[in-house]
Specification:
Strand content of chain B: 5-15%
Shape of chain C: globular
Structural class of chain B: mainly alpha
Largest sheet of chain B: 3 strands, antiparallel
Number of strands of chain C: 2
Low-confidence stretches of chain B: none
Number of helices of chain B: 17
Number of domains of chain C: 1
Order of helices and strands of chain C: HHHEEHHHHHHHHHH
Chains: A alpha+beta (about 190), B mainly alpha (about 375), C mainly alpha (about 375)
Largest sheet of chain C: 2 strands, antiparallel
Number of strands of chain B: 8
Number of helices of chain C: 13
Low-confidence stretches of chain C: none
Oligomer: heterotrimer
Largest interface: A-B, 56 and 72 residues
Helix content of chain C: 55-70%
Mean pLDDT of chain C: 78
Distance between the termini of chain C: 61 Å
Radius of gyration of chain B: 21 Å
Chain lengths: ~190, ~375, ~375
C-alpha cells in the first residue's frame, strides 16, 4: 500500500495576486477567448465549405449527424430472426423471470416437429428499462439488445407494446452485437 | 425555497426564516423523490436489484453496483476469491464514475455561481468519460454492469488507448476550469469561509467522503479499510482544514487528479484472465457452456428462476463513493430475494447538516453550500 | 404652391434631420440590436462553450448561422400569454416594463454617433440632442430605470421578486454614486461635460480616454456592468438564487420589454464607453479633415461628406459591436458576487479608488499645466 493522506494547498488568506481581482479575471477571459475564436472560425469555415465534421465543437448535430455507438450499446431489445425466417426463441421463459420490471410475457407452443416456439411474445416498451438482463438470461441468444435508440417514443402507451412480429430483426443486422456478446460479454471471459 | 427551485436540483425543500437576506433558521425537507427503492429490491431477486441501484446516485451508478455486489459477496464469503481482473475492472469503473461525479458536481457548483462556461467545460470532460463508460457497459448512466461474483462484460478492445485519449483532453478541460475559477477572487469570496464545520461536528453529523475530509479528518474507506485492489495501488487522499466550501472544492479537484492516477495505474497493472467467479451458484457460466453443458444449463435455469440462493445472514460492506461512504445493509433469509436491503446514502447526513452550516449566513450562501455537498435526490430519498 | 410659404419652412431640414436621426437610433436599438443581441448572446456563449448554439430555424433550408432565431424569438414572445399573478398590483405590474425600457432608449439621445457634416449646404450633426450636460443626463435617466425593476418587484406579489427588487434598489443606488465619481476624472481631462466636445478632442489617437484614464475606464466598466445588472453583478436576477429576480412573474411581451431594456442598456453602455474612452467615431491616426479632403478630391465635397459620414458611422458602430462582444465575454466567463460583497466592492473599493483617481488626475493636470 502506497500513498497516504496529504493536506490540500490552501492559503490562510487570499494572496495579493488574488486580491487584485483583475489579473485572474483576465486569465479567465483569455481561457474563454481561446475557446471562442477557434470555434468561431472553424464553424464559419465548416458552414461555408459544407463540411460539418471539421468543426472544433463537440456537439453532435443530431439528427443530421449520429453519434458513434459502441458495440456494447444497449438499445431496444429485439428477437433474432434466424436464417430460416423464424425466431430462435424456444419459449423457455427465462427472460420473463429475469426481467426486473416484468415487461415480457410469452405464450409458448409446439411446432409440428416438436420444437417449442413462442406463439405470442409481447414486450411492453413503456415498461422496459433497457437493463439487458433478458439478454443475459437467454440460453439461446434469441433476444439481444439492438443498437436501435431512435423512434422508440410514442404519444400513446398502447402503441409501445411490441408483438413478436414487431420485435423480429434479421440476424445479419445484429451481427455486431452478437459478436460482442460472444467475444466479450457473458462468454469467453467466464470460466 | 423549493421543491422546484433552480438551486434545489434533486427536489428538496428548504423552509427558510429570513431577516432581510440573513438566514435565521433553516429546515430541510427531503423525500420528494422517494420511490421505494428498498422495497423494489426486496420484491425482486438479488440480481434484479442491480438496475435499481443504478438509479440511486445516477452520476456514479457503478459505485452503487459495486457496493451492492460486494455486500452480497460478503454474504457468500467470496469477496477474497474474486478473480484479479474482475477486481481491477471494478476499481477502474469505480474511479471513472468518481470522475464523472466530481466533474458534474464541480461544474454544477460553478454553474450555480453564474460561471456557465466553466460548467460546460466540465460537462464536456464528463461526456468523454461517459463515452468510456458507455463503451464498457453499454449505457451512460444506467450502467447495470457489475454482477454478483463478477461483471457482465470484459473491458472493450483498445480500451487503454481510448482512456489515454480521453484523459489527455480531460486534462485540458481541467486546466481551463482551474484557470477560470480556482484563483478568481469572485469565486473565492463566494466559497471561502462559507459553510465551515469543525471536525467534531462533521463526525457527529455522520459526514463521510470529501466533506468529512474537508473538515480535516483523515478518513477514506479506500485507505482505512481497503477493498478490491485499492491497497495495491499508489494514490493519495487530500485532506482539508476548515470544512468550508472552498476546502471541499479543492478536495474534489484533487480527487479528480488522484482518480486519473488510479485508473492509469490500474490499466498498467491489470492482468489477463477471467472476470467472473467460478461457481455456477453465484455467477452463471459462459453462454457457450450453458448451451453445451447440461449441468451449467440446469444451474442457469435454477438461478434465473429461483434467484441466486444467498446464504442466511446479514452483511454490510462499506465502500468509498464519490460523496462519501456507500454501503448496503443486506439481510438474507437464505432465499432468492433479499429479505431486507437498506442503503446507506452519503447524502443524508450532509443534507441534515445544511441548516447547521448556513445559519447566520446569507441567502446566497445556501447555493454553494448546497452544491458542494452534492445532494443526489435519487440517493437521498431512495 | 411655393414650399417656402409653409410656416416654419426654414426649420424643415432640421426637422427632417431630427426625425431621421431618431428613427435611425430607434431602429438601431429596438429593431436591430435588441433582437440581434439575443442572438449574439446565445451564439457567442455557445461558441465559447464548445457548443453550436441556435441554428435550427430555417427558411427554404437556409439557416444563415441561425439568424432567423431573432425572428422566431420575437414571434414566440408576442404569442405568449400575458400572465398576471394573483394578488399582483395590476396597474403597477403593467407599468413597470415601460418604466424600465423607456429610460434605456432615451439615454441614447445625448450620445453622439458621428461628427458634423456639410451636406448640400445643410449642416448635419449626428446627435439627437447635444446637451451641455450630456453625461449628467445619462445618469439621471439611467436612475429612472431602477424604478422599473423596483416597481416590477413590488407589483409581482412574489417573495423572490421582492428580494430581487430590494437588491436592485440597493445595488443601483450605490453604484450610481461610484459611477458618477469614476467619470469625474474623464471630465477633468477633457474639461467638458458635453459628449460631442469630449468626442472631438479624441480625434488625436493619444488623447483617447483609455490612455488618459485607464483606471477610470476599469472602474467605470465595473460600475456600468453593475448598473446593467449582468454577471458578475447580476444578483438582482441571479437565477440560481432568486429564479429570475424582479421579473420572475412576467411573461410574453412584458418580459420581452425587460429583456429589451437590458440589451438596449448594453448598447448604451458600449456607446458611452466608445465616446468616452475609445475615440468615438474617429479612426486612429486619421483626422477628420484629412480624410475629408482626400474624399473631396476624389468624389467632390457633398458626396465626400456623405461618404465620410457613413465611414464614421461604420467605425462608431463597429467599436460599439466590439465592446458588446467584450461585455458578453465577461458575462459568460465569470461567476457572480454575493449581495454583501457587491456592496463592499462598490462602497469600499470602487468609491475610494475613484476618489483617488480624481485626486491623482488633478495633481497630474496641475503639474502638466
Amino acid at each position: 500500500m502506497a500513498g497516504g493522506y496529504y493536506k490540500i494547498k490552501r492559503g490562510e488568506s487570499l494572496t495579493f495576486w488574488e486580491r487584485l481581482y483583475l489579473p485572474e479575471i483576465f486569465r479567465g477571459l483569455s481561457v474563454t477567448t481561446r475557446h471562442f475564436i477557434p470555434n468561431w472560425i472553424s464553424t464559419i469555415i465548416a458552414y461555408i465549405t459544407r463540411t460539418p465534421e471539421k468543426r472544433k465543437i463537440m456537439t453532435i448535430y443530431y439528427p443530421e449527424e449520429l453519434p458513434e455507438i459502441p458495440d456494447s450499446y444497449r438499445g431496444k431489445p429485439v428477437l433474432v430472426r434466424a436464417g430460416n425466417g423464424a425466431t430462435k426463441c424456444v419459449a423457455c421463459g427465462l427472460c420473463e423471470v429475469a426481467c426486473p420490471p416484468k415487461c415480457i410475457s410469452i405464450v409458448g407452443g409446439n411446432r409440428s416437429d416438436g420444437t417449442r416456439y413462442p406463439e405470442t411474445y409481447t414486450l411492453d416498451g413503456s415498461r422496459c428499462i433497457f437493463c439487458g438482463l433478458c439478454e443475459e438470461a437467454c440460453p439461446v441468444e434469441a433476444i439481444v439488445m439492438s443498437h436501435r435508440y431512435q423512434d422508440l417514443c410514442e404519444h400513446d402507451r398502447s402503441k409501445m407494446i411490441y408483438s413478436k412480429e414487431d420485435l423480429l430483426v434479421p440476424e445479419k443486422d445484429l451481427q455486431s452485437r452478437l459478436d460482442f456478446i460472444r467475444r466479450r460479454a457473458y462468454g469467453k471471459c467466464n470460466y | 425555497m423549493g421543491p422546484s427551485h433552480p438551486a434545489t436540483h434533486g427536489t428538496v425543500r428548504f423552509l427558510l426564516r429570513l431577516e432581510g437576506e440573513r438566514i435565521i433558521n433553516m429546515e430541510t425537507e427531503i423525500g420528494y423523490l422517494h420511490r421505494a427503492f428498498e422495497k423494489h429490491c426486496e420484491n425482486g431477486k438479488w440480481t434484479q436489484a442491480f438496475p435499481y441501484t443504478d438509479r440511486l446516485n445516477y452520476n456514479s451508478a457503478m459505485q452503487n453496483n459495486v457496493a451492492f455486489a460486494l455486500g452480497v459477496e460478503k454474504l457468500f464469503g467470496v469477496v477474497d476469491k474474486l478473480p484479479e481482473r474482475c477486481r481491477y475492472i471494478r476499481v477502474i469503473v469505480c474511479e471513472l464514475s468518481r470522475l464523472c461525479d466530481h466533474y458534474t458536481n464541480l461544474g454544477a457548483a460553478a454553474l450555480e455561481l453564474g460561471a456557465l462556461t466553466a460548467f460546460l467545460y466540465f460537462v464536456e470532460a464528463r461526456e468523454l468519460t461517459w463515452d468510456l463508460m458507455e463503451s464498457i457497459c453499454g449505457a451512460r448512466l444506467t450502467s447495470n454492469y457489475i454482477r454478483i461474483g463478477g461483471v457482465t462484460a470484459d473491458l472493450p478492445e483498445n480500451f487503454k488507448e481510448h482512456v489515454k485519449e480521453v484523459f489527455d483532453r480531460n486534462r485540458e478541460f481541467y486546466d481551463d476550469f482551474d484557470k477560470l475559477l480556482t484563483h478568481n477572487r469572485i469565486f473565492l469570496d463566494r466559497m471561502r469561509e462559507v459553510g465551515t464545520i469543525s471536525a467534531e461536528d462533521a463526525i457527529a453529523f455522520g459526514f463521510t467522503g470529501p466533506c468529512l475530509r474537508a473538515a480535516g479528518v483523515e478518513y477514506d474507506v479506500r485507505k482505512a479499510n481497503p477493498y478490491l485492489v485499492y491497497d495495491e495501488l499508489d494514490f493519495d487522499v487530500p485532506v482539508g482544514f476548515t470544512g468550508d466550501n472552498f476546502d471541499i472544492y479543492l478536495i474534489r479537484m484533487e480527487e479528480v487528479k488522484q482518480s486519473i492516477r488510479i485508473i492509469e495505474q490500474a490499466l498498467e497493472k491489470i492482468p489477463e484472465g477471467p472476470v467472473n467467479i467460478d461457481d455456477p451458484n453465484i455467477r452463471q457460466h459462459s453462454k457457450e457452456r450453458i448451451h453445451d453443458d447440461m449441468e451449467s444449463m440446469i444451474f442457469h435455469f435454477k438461478n434465473q428462476i429461483e434467484g441466486i440462493q444467498v446464504p442466511k445472514g446479514e452483511s454490510y460492506f462499506p465502500t468509498e463513493g464519490s460523496n462519501g461512504e456507500v454501503g448496503f445493509y443486506l439481510v438474507s433469509d437464505g432465499g432468492g430475494k433479499p429479505y431486507k436491503c437498506r442503503v446507506r446514502p452519503p447524502c443524508i447526513p450532509l443534507t441534515q447538516a445544511m441548516g447547521f452550516r448556513v445559519k447566520g449566513l446569507f441567502l446566497a450562501d445556501i447555493i454553494p453550500t448546497f452544491d458542494m455537498i452534492n445532494l443526489i435526490g435519487g440517493e437521498c430519498d431512495r | 404652391m411655393d414650399i417656402t410659404l409653409i410656416p416654419g419652412y426654414q426649420y424643415m431640414p432640421e426637422l427632417v434631420e431630427m426625425m431621421l436621426k431618431i428613427v435611425f437610433i430607434f431602429t438601431m436599438n429596438v429593431g436591430v440590436f435588441a433582437p440581434l443581441l439575443g442572438y449574439v448572446e446565445r451564439k457567442q456563449s455557445a461558441l465559447m462553450q464548445d457548443r453550436i448554439g441556435a441554428n435550427r430555424a430555417a427558411i427554404l433550408g437556409f439557416t444563415i448561422f441561425g439568424l432567423w432565431h431573432t425572428m422566431t424569438d420575437a414571434i414566440k414572445l408576442i404569442a405568449k400569454e400575458d400572465f398576471i399573478p394573483e394578488g399582483a398590483d395590476k396597474p403597477l405590474h403593467f407599468l413597470a416594463p415601460f418604466v424600465a425600457v423607456v429610460p434605456a432608449l432615451i439615454a441614447f439621445a445625448v450620445i453622439p454617433f458621428g461628427g458634423t457634416y456639410y451636406l448640400w449646404g445643410h449642416e448635419a450633426h449626428l446627435i439627437i440632442a447635444d446637451l451641455d450636460v450630456g453625461i449628467l443626463f445619462i445618469f439621471a435617466v439611467a436612475g429612472i430605470g431602477t424604478y422599473g425593476a423596483v416597481i416590477a418587484a413590488w407589483a409581482s406579489n412574489n417573495n423572490w421578486s421582492l428580494l430581487g427588487g430590494v437588491r436592485t434598489a440597493a445595488q443601483m443606488v450605490s453604484y450610481e454614486v461610484a459611477m458618477g465619481l469614476t467619470i469625474v476624472g474623464v471630465l477633468m481631462v477633457y474639461e467638458s461635460l458635453k459628449l460631442t466636445e469630449i468626442a472631438l478632442i479624441q480625434e488625436d489617437f493619444f488623447m483617447w480616454g483609455i490612455f488618459l484614464q485607464p483606471v477610470g475606464f476599469l472602474l467605470f466598466l465595473a460600475c456600468a456592468l453593475a448598473e446593467n445588472k449582468r454577471v458578475p453583478f447580476d444578483i438582482p436576477e441571479a437565477e440560481s438564487e432568486l429564479i429570475a429576480g424582479y421579473f420572475t412573474e412576467y411573461s410574453g411581451l412584458k418580459f420581452a420589454m425587460f429583456w429589451m431594456a437590458e440589451f438596449v442598456e448594453i448598447v448604451t453602455i458600449s456607446a458611452i464607453l466608445t465616446v468616452l474612452f475609445f475615440g468615438a467615431w474617429h479612426i486612429p491616426f486619421v483626422t477628420h479633415d484629412g480624410l475629408l479632403s482626400l474624399l473631396t478630391s476624389v468624389v467632390g465635397a457633398d458626396i465626400g461628406n456623405l461618404l465620410l459620414m457613413f465611414i464614421h458611422l461604420a467605425v462608431f458602430w463597429g467599436k460599439v459591436c466590439f465592446l458588446i462582444v467584450f461585455l458578453m465575454l465577461i458575462r459568460w466567463s465569470l461567476p457572480r458576487f454575493r449581495y454583501d460583497q457587491i456592496m463592499k466592492l462598490g462602497w469600499k473599493i470602487i468609491l475610494p479608488l475613484a476618489l483617488v483617481n480624481i485626486l491623482a488626475t488633478g495633481v497630474i493636470l496641475l503639474v502638466v499645466k
